[in-house]
Amino acid sequence: MGKKTLNTMYEENTPRACKYIVSRQICTVIDVRLQLDRLTTDNVLWDPYTDHRAYCPFVSISLFCRYLRGSDTIQRHLPERFMCQFGFVQTIPRPPLLVELGNLATVEDRWTHFHDHVIRWLTHVSEPHDCSSDYMGWYTCMSHPYLIPGSDSDAVGRRRRRSPEPEAVGPSRSSFQ
Amino acid sequence: MPSTYSYYGRFPICYNLEFGEAAEVLVDLLGVQSSDAKKEMRHLKCQHVRLSWLKDVYEQSCEAGMWEYAARAYLLHLVGCTIFADKSAYFIAVKYLTLFRDLGSCGNYAWGVGCLAYVYEQLGYACMSPTHQLGGYTTLVQVQMMDTLFLL
After folding, report:
1. Interface predicted TM-score of the whole assembly (ipTM), two decimals
2. Helix (H, G, I), strand (E, B) or coil at B101
3. Which of A21, A33, A112, B140 could bond A5 through an S-S bridge, CB–CB 3.0 to 4.6 Å?
4. How far apart are CA B152 and CA B147, in angstroms?
5. pTM for the whole thing?
6. Chain A closest CA to B32's CA: distance in Å?
7. Where do the structural domains in chain B lie, given as residue ranges?
8. Run of H or E residues at A74
Protein backbone atom coordinates (compact mmCIF):
# COMPACT_ATOMS: atom_id res chain seq x y z
CA MET A 1 0.00 0.00 0.00
CA GLY A 2 1.34 3.41 -0.92
CA LYS A 3 1.34 6.30 1.50
CA LYS A 4 -1.32 8.90 0.84
CA THR A 5 -1.09 12.61 0.30
CA LEU A 6 -4.18 14.78 -0.05
CA ASN A 7 -4.62 16.43 -3.41
CA THR A 8 -5.22 20.08 -2.57
CA MET A 9 -6.78 20.68 -6.00
CA TYR A 10 -9.57 18.11 -5.36
CA GLU A 11 -13.15 19.21 -5.94
CA GLU A 12 -16.19 17.19 -4.90
CA ASN A 13 -17.60 17.06 -8.44
CA THR A 14 -14.70 14.86 -9.57
CA PRO A 15 -14.36 11.13 -8.75
CA ARG A 16 -13.46 10.49 -5.14
CA ALA A 17 -10.21 8.71 -5.97
CA CYS A 18 -8.86 12.06 -7.28
CA LYS A 19 -8.72 13.23 -3.65
CA TYR A 20 -5.48 11.38 -3.04
CA ILE A 21 -2.05 11.31 -4.53
CA VAL A 22 -0.46 7.96 -3.85
CA SER A 23 3.29 8.12 -3.64
CA ARG A 24 5.58 5.26 -4.51
CA GLN A 25 6.65 5.10 -0.89
CA ILE A 26 5.34 1.75 0.32
CA CYS A 27 4.08 0.90 3.81
CA THR A 28 4.98 -2.54 5.12
CA VAL A 29 2.18 -4.91 6.17
CA ILE A 30 3.34 -4.89 9.79
CA ASP A 31 3.36 -1.09 9.77
CA VAL A 32 -0.23 -0.89 8.50
CA ARG A 33 -1.38 -3.55 10.99
CA LEU A 34 0.18 -1.60 13.85
CA GLN A 35 -1.61 1.54 12.73
CA LEU A 36 -4.93 -0.33 12.46
CA ASP A 37 -4.49 -1.76 15.96
CA ARG A 38 -3.86 1.72 17.36
CA LEU A 39 -6.91 3.33 15.73
CA THR A 40 -9.33 5.11 18.03
CA THR A 41 -12.79 6.54 17.30
CA ASP A 42 -11.20 9.91 16.58
CA ASN A 43 -9.18 8.35 13.74
CA VAL A 44 -12.25 7.12 11.88
CA LEU A 45 -14.38 9.22 9.57
CA TRP A 46 -17.73 7.44 9.79
CA ASP A 47 -19.57 9.29 7.02
CA PRO A 48 -16.92 10.35 4.49
CA TYR A 49 -19.35 10.90 1.62
CA THR A 50 -21.68 13.51 3.13
CA ASP A 51 -20.20 16.36 1.06
CA HIS A 52 -19.98 14.18 -2.03
CA ARG A 53 -23.74 13.45 -2.01
CA ALA A 54 -24.49 16.80 -3.63
CA TYR A 55 -22.78 15.51 -6.80
CA CYS A 56 -23.36 11.79 -6.41
CA PRO A 57 -26.78 11.52 -4.72
CA PHE A 58 -27.71 8.69 -2.40
CA VAL A 59 -29.85 6.08 -4.15
CA SER A 60 -31.96 3.43 -2.45
CA ILE A 61 -30.26 0.60 -4.33
CA SER A 62 -27.22 1.21 -2.12
CA LEU A 63 -29.26 -0.50 0.62
CA PHE A 64 -29.94 -3.60 -1.50
CA CYS A 65 -29.04 -6.48 0.79
CA ARG A 66 -28.90 -9.74 -1.14
CA TYR A 67 -26.61 -11.47 -3.59
CA LEU A 68 -24.73 -9.91 -6.51
CA ARG A 69 -23.47 -11.67 -9.62
CA GLY A 70 -20.57 -10.61 -11.76
CA SER A 71 -17.96 -12.45 -13.82
CA ASP A 72 -18.59 -16.09 -12.78
CA THR A 73 -19.11 -15.45 -9.09
CA ILE A 74 -22.09 -14.89 -6.76
CA GLN A 75 -21.40 -12.93 -3.59
CA ARG A 76 -23.37 -11.65 -0.62
CA HIS A 77 -23.69 -7.88 -0.48
CA LEU A 78 -24.55 -6.76 3.06
CA PRO A 79 -24.59 -2.97 3.47
CA GLU A 80 -26.45 -3.52 6.77
CA ARG A 81 -22.96 -4.05 8.22
CA PHE A 82 -21.76 -0.48 7.58
CA MET A 83 -24.79 1.72 8.08
CA CYS A 84 -22.85 4.67 9.57
CA GLN A 85 -21.43 5.32 6.10
CA PHE A 86 -24.98 6.09 4.94
CA GLY A 87 -25.86 8.15 8.01
CA PHE A 88 -28.00 5.51 9.75
CA VAL A 89 -27.73 4.05 13.25
CA GLN A 90 -25.79 0.77 13.23
CA THR A 91 -27.67 -2.20 14.66
CA ILE A 92 -26.62 -5.84 15.06
CA PRO A 93 -26.65 -7.32 11.55
CA ARG A 94 -28.16 -10.67 10.68
CA PRO A 95 -25.86 -13.68 10.65
CA PRO A 96 -24.66 -13.81 7.01
CA LEU A 97 -25.92 -17.36 6.53
CA LEU A 98 -29.49 -16.17 7.17
CA VAL A 99 -29.33 -14.26 3.89
CA GLU A 100 -30.22 -17.30 1.85
CA LEU A 101 -28.95 -17.78 -1.67
CA GLY A 102 -31.83 -19.53 -3.41
CA ASN A 103 -31.27 -20.49 -7.03
CA LEU A 104 -29.89 -18.38 -9.86
CA ALA A 105 -33.36 -17.28 -10.98
CA THR A 106 -34.09 -16.04 -7.44
CA VAL A 107 -30.84 -14.05 -7.38
CA GLU A 108 -31.75 -12.40 -10.70
CA ASP A 109 -35.35 -11.79 -9.64
CA ARG A 110 -34.36 -10.07 -6.41
CA TRP A 111 -31.99 -7.81 -8.30
CA THR A 112 -34.68 -6.94 -10.84
CA HIS A 113 -37.15 -6.16 -8.03
CA PHE A 114 -34.53 -4.60 -5.78
CA HIS A 115 -37.06 -2.28 -4.11
CA ASP A 116 -38.43 -5.27 -2.18
CA HIS A 117 -34.98 -6.17 -0.88
CA VAL A 118 -33.54 -2.94 0.50
CA ILE A 119 -33.00 -2.42 4.23
CA ARG A 120 -35.91 -0.63 5.89
CA TRP A 121 -36.83 0.85 9.27
CA LEU A 122 -33.62 2.81 9.61
CA THR A 123 -32.95 5.65 12.04
CA HIS A 124 -30.81 8.63 11.08
CA VAL A 125 -27.79 9.20 13.30
CA SER A 126 -27.35 12.26 15.50
CA GLU A 127 -23.63 11.51 16.02
CA PRO A 128 -21.79 9.94 13.05
CA HIS A 129 -20.80 6.81 15.03
CA ASP A 130 -24.21 6.12 16.63
CA CYS A 131 -25.10 2.48 17.17
CA SER A 132 -27.81 0.60 19.05
CA SER A 133 -27.20 -0.02 22.77
CA ASP A 134 -26.52 -3.73 22.27
CA TYR A 135 -24.23 -3.30 19.23
CA MET A 136 -20.88 -2.77 20.97
CA GLY A 137 -21.33 -5.89 23.11
CA TRP A 138 -22.02 -7.89 19.98
CA TYR A 139 -19.15 -6.28 18.07
CA THR A 140 -16.50 -6.98 20.69
CA CYS A 141 -17.55 -10.63 20.91
CA MET A 142 -17.74 -11.22 17.18
CA SER A 143 -14.88 -9.13 15.86
CA HIS A 144 -11.13 -9.48 15.97
CA PRO A 145 -10.13 -6.25 17.70
CA TYR A 146 -6.41 -6.74 16.99
CA LEU A 147 -4.50 -7.82 13.93
CA ILE A 148 -1.24 -8.42 15.77
CA PRO A 149 -1.57 -10.97 18.58
CA GLY A 150 -0.01 -9.58 21.75
CA SER A 151 1.22 -11.41 24.84
CA ASP A 152 -1.38 -13.31 26.91
CA SER A 153 -1.61 -10.52 29.48
CA ASP A 154 -2.34 -8.09 26.64
CA ALA A 155 -4.83 -10.30 24.83
CA VAL A 156 -7.96 -8.27 25.49
CA GLY A 157 -9.39 -9.39 22.20
CA ARG A 158 -9.05 -13.07 22.90
CA ARG A 159 -10.40 -12.73 26.44
CA ARG A 160 -13.45 -10.97 25.12
CA ARG A 161 -14.26 -13.62 22.59
CA ARG A 162 -14.75 -16.04 25.47
CA SER A 163 -17.07 -13.66 27.35
CA PRO A 164 -20.06 -12.79 25.17
CA GLU A 165 -21.98 -10.86 27.86
CA PRO A 166 -21.69 -7.11 27.20
CA GLU A 167 -21.00 -6.16 30.85
CA ALA A 168 -17.68 -8.00 30.67
CA VAL A 169 -16.46 -5.48 28.12
CA GLY A 170 -14.21 -2.97 29.79
CA PRO A 171 -12.59 0.14 28.38
CA SER A 172 -9.86 -0.75 25.95
CA ARG A 173 -7.83 0.54 23.07
CA SER A 174 -10.26 -1.00 20.60
CA SER A 175 -11.12 1.20 17.66
CA PHE A 176 -14.81 1.41 18.41
CA GLN A 177 -14.70 2.50 22.06
CA MET B 1 -33.10 -14.65 -17.88
CA PRO B 2 -35.84 -12.35 -16.58
CA SER B 3 -37.83 -10.48 -19.19
CA THR B 4 -37.54 -7.14 -17.42
CA TYR B 5 -34.20 -5.85 -16.27
CA SER B 6 -33.48 -3.85 -13.22
CA TYR B 7 -33.22 -0.13 -13.78
CA TYR B 8 -29.56 -0.46 -12.80
CA GLY B 9 -28.78 -2.99 -15.49
CA ARG B 10 -28.09 -6.68 -15.93
CA PHE B 11 -25.45 -8.62 -14.04
CA PRO B 12 -22.30 -8.83 -16.21
CA ILE B 13 -21.94 -12.61 -16.18
CA CYS B 14 -19.49 -14.66 -18.19
CA TYR B 15 -18.35 -18.25 -17.94
CA ASN B 16 -15.01 -19.99 -18.30
CA LEU B 17 -14.31 -21.07 -21.85
CA GLU B 18 -12.63 -24.16 -23.25
CA PHE B 19 -9.51 -23.57 -25.35
CA GLY B 20 -11.35 -23.98 -28.66
CA GLU B 21 -14.26 -21.74 -27.60
CA ALA B 22 -11.87 -19.04 -26.40
CA ALA B 23 -10.04 -19.11 -29.75
CA GLU B 24 -13.37 -18.79 -31.59
CA VAL B 25 -14.35 -15.82 -29.41
CA LEU B 26 -11.05 -14.09 -30.18
CA VAL B 27 -11.51 -14.68 -33.92
CA ASP B 28 -15.16 -13.57 -33.94
CA LEU B 29 -14.92 -10.54 -31.68
CA LEU B 30 -11.41 -9.23 -32.29
CA GLY B 31 -10.95 -10.27 -35.90
CA VAL B 32 -7.60 -11.94 -35.28
CA GLN B 33 -6.33 -15.01 -37.12
CA SER B 34 -7.20 -18.28 -35.43
CA SER B 35 -3.54 -19.29 -35.44
CA ASP B 36 -2.52 -16.03 -33.71
CA ALA B 37 -5.23 -16.44 -31.08
CA LYS B 38 -4.17 -20.01 -30.32
CA LYS B 39 -0.50 -19.10 -30.28
CA GLU B 40 -1.14 -16.32 -27.76
CA MET B 41 -3.12 -18.58 -25.43
CA ARG B 42 -0.71 -21.52 -25.78
CA HIS B 43 2.11 -19.16 -24.87
CA LEU B 44 0.30 -18.44 -21.57
CA LYS B 45 -0.96 -22.03 -21.13
CA CYS B 46 -4.49 -20.85 -20.26
CA GLN B 47 -7.49 -19.06 -21.80
CA HIS B 48 -5.94 -15.66 -21.17
CA VAL B 49 -4.29 -13.03 -23.35
CA ARG B 50 -1.65 -10.47 -22.48
CA LEU B 51 -2.76 -6.85 -22.09
CA SER B 52 0.17 -5.87 -24.33
CA TRP B 53 -1.13 -8.26 -27.02
CA LEU B 54 -4.54 -6.54 -26.79
CA LYS B 55 -2.86 -3.19 -27.26
CA ASP B 56 -1.26 -4.48 -30.47
CA VAL B 57 -4.64 -5.80 -31.69
CA TYR B 58 -6.17 -2.41 -30.91
CA GLU B 59 -3.53 -0.53 -32.89
CA GLN B 60 -3.74 -2.87 -35.87
CA SER B 61 -7.57 -2.67 -35.89
CA CYS B 62 -7.39 1.12 -35.80
CA GLU B 63 -4.97 1.17 -38.73
CA ALA B 64 -7.27 -1.14 -40.69
CA GLY B 65 -10.32 0.95 -39.79
CA MET B 66 -11.97 -2.03 -38.10
CA TRP B 67 -13.58 0.05 -35.39
CA GLU B 68 -15.69 -2.63 -33.71
CA TYR B 69 -12.64 -4.85 -33.19
CA ALA B 70 -10.67 -1.86 -31.96
CA ALA B 71 -13.43 -0.89 -29.51
CA ARG B 72 -13.64 -4.41 -28.08
CA ALA B 73 -9.85 -4.67 -27.70
CA TYR B 74 -9.85 -1.31 -25.94
CA LEU B 75 -12.72 -2.23 -23.59
CA LEU B 76 -11.24 -5.61 -22.70
CA HIS B 77 -7.92 -3.92 -21.95
CA LEU B 78 -9.76 -1.37 -19.80
CA VAL B 79 -11.61 -3.91 -17.63
CA GLY B 80 -8.42 -6.00 -17.47
CA CYS B 81 -6.62 -3.03 -15.89
CA THR B 82 -9.48 -2.02 -13.60
CA ILE B 83 -12.60 -3.86 -12.47
CA PHE B 84 -11.58 -7.38 -13.53
CA ALA B 85 -7.85 -7.04 -12.91
CA ASP B 86 -6.22 -10.26 -11.82
CA LYS B 87 -3.24 -10.46 -9.56
CA SER B 88 -0.76 -10.57 -12.43
CA ALA B 89 -1.90 -7.16 -13.81
CA TYR B 90 -0.55 -8.59 -17.06
CA PHE B 91 -3.22 -10.95 -18.43
CA ILE B 92 -6.99 -10.93 -18.88
CA ALA B 93 -9.26 -13.96 -19.26
CA VAL B 94 -10.80 -14.25 -22.74
CA LYS B 95 -14.24 -14.93 -21.17
CA TYR B 96 -14.66 -11.20 -20.42
CA LEU B 97 -14.58 -10.48 -24.12
CA THR B 98 -17.99 -12.18 -24.44
CA LEU B 99 -19.48 -9.26 -22.46
CA PHE B 100 -18.58 -6.98 -25.38
CA ARG B 101 -20.14 -9.13 -28.09
CA ASP B 102 -22.92 -6.60 -28.60
CA LEU B 103 -21.31 -3.17 -28.37
CA GLY B 104 -24.69 -1.47 -28.63
CA SER B 105 -26.03 -3.03 -25.43
CA CYS B 106 -22.94 -3.70 -23.30
CA GLY B 107 -23.53 -0.35 -21.63
CA ASN B 108 -26.64 -1.88 -20.05
CA TYR B 109 -24.63 -4.18 -17.81
CA ALA B 110 -24.39 -3.18 -14.15
CA TRP B 111 -20.59 -2.89 -14.32
CA GLY B 112 -20.29 -1.50 -10.80
CA VAL B 113 -22.05 -4.58 -9.46
CA GLY B 114 -19.73 -6.86 -11.43
CA CYS B 115 -16.78 -4.99 -9.98
CA LEU B 116 -18.10 -5.39 -6.41
CA ALA B 117 -18.89 -9.08 -6.78
CA TYR B 118 -15.41 -9.72 -8.19
CA VAL B 119 -13.63 -7.74 -5.49
CA TYR B 120 -15.68 -9.50 -2.77
CA GLU B 121 -14.56 -12.84 -4.15
CA GLN B 122 -10.94 -11.68 -4.24
CA LEU B 123 -11.14 -10.34 -0.67
CA GLY B 124 -12.36 -13.79 0.36
CA TYR B 125 -9.29 -15.37 -1.21
CA ALA B 126 -7.05 -12.74 0.37
CA CYS B 127 -8.23 -13.84 3.83
CA MET B 128 -6.65 -17.26 3.34
CA SER B 129 -3.17 -17.52 4.81
CA PRO B 130 -1.38 -18.81 1.65
CA THR B 131 -2.61 -15.76 -0.32
CA HIS B 132 -0.24 -12.82 -0.48
CA GLN B 133 -1.88 -10.52 -3.01
CA LEU B 134 -5.27 -9.02 -3.73
CA GLY B 135 -6.85 -9.03 -7.18
CA GLY B 136 -9.80 -6.99 -8.46
CA TYR B 137 -10.22 -3.24 -8.43
CA THR B 138 -7.92 -2.57 -5.49
CA THR B 139 -8.08 1.20 -6.09
CA LEU B 140 -11.65 1.04 -4.81
CA VAL B 141 -10.60 -0.75 -1.64
CA GLN B 142 -7.73 1.64 -1.07
CA VAL B 143 -9.81 4.80 -1.58
CA GLN B 144 -12.49 3.49 0.79
CA MET B 145 -9.81 2.89 3.40
CA MET B 146 -8.25 6.31 2.90
CA ASP B 147 -11.67 7.94 3.11
CA THR B 148 -12.60 6.37 6.43
CA LEU B 149 -9.37 5.78 8.32
CA PHE B 150 -6.77 8.38 9.20
CA LEU B 151 -3.70 6.28 8.61
CA LEU B 152 -0.25 7.67 7.97
Report:
1. 0.89
2. coil
3. A21
4. 12
5. 0.85
6. 24
7. 19-107
8. strand A73-76
